[in-house]
Amino acid sequence: ELEEIEREKGVIVEEMNMYFDTPRDYLGGLYEQLLYGDQPLGWDIIGRKDTVRGATRETFLEYLDRWYQPTRLVVGVGGKFDPSLLATLEELVSEFPPGEMPGPDPVRLEANGGPHVVVHTKASDQAHVSLGVRSYPIVHQDRYALQLLSTVLGGGMSSRLFTEVRERRGLAYYVFGVNNSYTDAGSLFSQAGVDINRIDEAIETIVRELRRIAEEPVPDDELEKARNFAKGRFVLQLESPHGTIMYGLRREVLEGRATEPSEVLEGLNAVTVEDLQRVAQDVIGRNALNLAVIGPFEDAERFERLLA
Question: What CATH number did the domain enclosing 188 receive?
Fold first, then answer.
């Protein structure tokens, strides 16, 4: 009903206000705007206030008709169930009206020359930074080497970034490194909440760790520690039926097939020190640095000099 739609618009706009007022959450969207620009991958998922306020009942119906097609539907079942359930699901799915539509347009990536910086000025007692490089899409022959590279850099409390930025220098409360891949693009990056008076040192430290891992081979014992960490976290995610089904659905929807968990473990086991350095040189050594900053700053050139 129209009244219900209008009421919900107010709720969503307030959710936006909360999101924009929370730098740690808003930073991810700001960083992806820097990477991908004015196209769907660079837009905030939550939308803009003007599009939310301008939405009508027809907006929702058109969206459903466009994207919710049988060819895009995947049904997942996890846990113990009666085999007859599959026949029931097939019968229910067959009742959907036929229809096909092409997928979204692929992302357009501009030339990646020189460092890129965006600053969102906000009065605060802590600065939030996201610093990284372009990487690989989800389906890539070096996906597991890239995963372990991000683990060495910023996965857990024994990672290089946590040790160097927080434990040794006391520059941040939280700091992590992660690789975030989509179907046709990706980024390896670090995010941290840092002292506004020592932000330059924090950025320089993160840059130094990125360059070090591209220039120097990771020791065997450090790779094994990262491998065990990544495998353990993956196995823990699959301990519940919900975790298992979400793993399968993500793989099926984004990659076209739900690989067995054993294949993931085999892929992680196969990564060598040489693989890690080759991927680090390709991803970090070849690509320009990208930096998003939220805090009481206005001068982007100041930060560009730190990345040069």
Answer: 3.30.830.10
